[in-house]
Structures are given as structure tokens and as C-alpha cells.
Amino acid sequence: MDLHLKIWRQKDNQSEGKLVDYELKELNSHMSFLEMLDTLNEKLITEGDEPVEFDHDCREGICGQCGMMINGLAHGPLQNTTTCQLHLRSFKNGETIVIEPFRAQAFPVKRDLKVDRSSFDRIISSGGFVSINTGQAPDATAISVTHQLAEEAFDAAACIGCGACVATCKNGSAALFTSAKISHMALLPQGKEEKSTRVLSMVKQMDTELFGHCSNTEACEVECPQGISVLNIARMNYEYSRALFFGKK
Fold first, then answer.
1. Domains of the chain
2. pLDDT-flagged residues of the chain (< 70)
3. Who contacts 38 (Cβ-Cβ below 8 Å, separation ≥6)?
4. For labelling alongside 186, which of 4, 17, 106, 158 has CA 20 to 30 A away?
């Protein structure tokens, strides 16, 4: 199959960027999207041009590093799918594909399709630690956790921090990401001791990083490759209000 690509090229955060046109022919429809970009880069290097820089790591849909906007959609047209798990069979022969980096004030562009998502790391770090005793693995029945509670915690913990929720939000909000990290620990007994200080610190750091506010459009849940529920945002707001007015009580 043949594809016409319009890819955002930008030297660094201080330079102006623009969309540049590329043509690729005789591609295998079973290629992944990142393999297609690899093919393009091989062609550019052979021709003496600068390759397109983009983030990637596991290429197994686990790490979320490969995030980019594809035809205006975070990670592309398939729901609950990371960019590395997207294949060319999802596009038509001869189609024009517009590829851009994630757009958000808190995600400055480093080069081409690479963005700086270290703001996520600082939000997680602000959450601190858990004071549960460590050492040998405890007995499986030592701490009682209901099946429903465990499932809710696991669902929240599935967040891979790719940033699709921020990129697709018209406000550039990190509410879904932050709430997933807060919910994960707030639900489990091991995280309850510090849950009040944790939610206050993480929400404060989220605001410090200049993420926008959530206006409940729920676009974040739609574009999330892990299908993280917006109900986590409601839980974060509850935990925040509780901590703000009642402290550790």
C-alpha cells in the first residue's frame, strides 16, 4: 500500500515547527505504525536527511512511550490501542495521514514527535511513600481486601502514563492520570495511612505543572488505551475534599 504522510518536524522547543510531506510506497499492510516510521527513517537516512524522532520503548502496548496524534486522535483511530499496536491495515491505500506530537502546555516538544512528559514523574513523586511494613512477603490472607475493591484498584493501576488523556483534553487536564494514581493507593489498605497527604500533594503538583482543569467532557476516557474510567476523577475529588476539610480523620 502507498501512503502520504504529513509529519510535524521541529528542531527543538525554541524553534518553529511545520508539517512536512513524505511519500511511502509498497508498504506491507501488516506493518505496525512504528515500523512504518522506521521504514521512513531508513529512507531519509539513505537520502542524507534527518530522521523523524519519536518516542518508543517496549512496542508491546505496555509502556505508553509511543504516544502521538494521528489524524487528530491520540494513538490513532482504534480505541484502547497504543500507537505501537496500531497497524497499517487500519488505513486505506493512498490515504493521507497527519502525524503530530501530543499537544499540551505541560508537554513541551523536545524534537519532532518527542515531548517531555517528566511532569507526570513529578506528580507521582509528590505522592510520597507508603508506610506499610516491608520484608518477607506477607501471607495472602494477612490483609483482607474484597474482590471488588481489588478489581477497582487494579483497573486504576493499569494507567501507563502515556499522556493521551492530556493530549485529547481541550483543557490539557491531567485529571484522569492523577486520579488513577491516587485511586490505586487510596482504595487499598496499604495506602490508606498517607492517602490524605498524598491527594493534597499530587493535586497541588498537578496544578504547579500547569495542567488545565477537568470540565467533564470524558474525552480522556475515550482516548485512553487502557480504558481508565472517569469515575476515578470523581474519587479523586472526593478524597481531595475529604482531606482538605477533615485532614487525616
1. 3-110 (3.10.20.30), 117-131+141-246 (1.10.1060.10)
2. 132, 134, 140, 248-249
3. none
4. 106
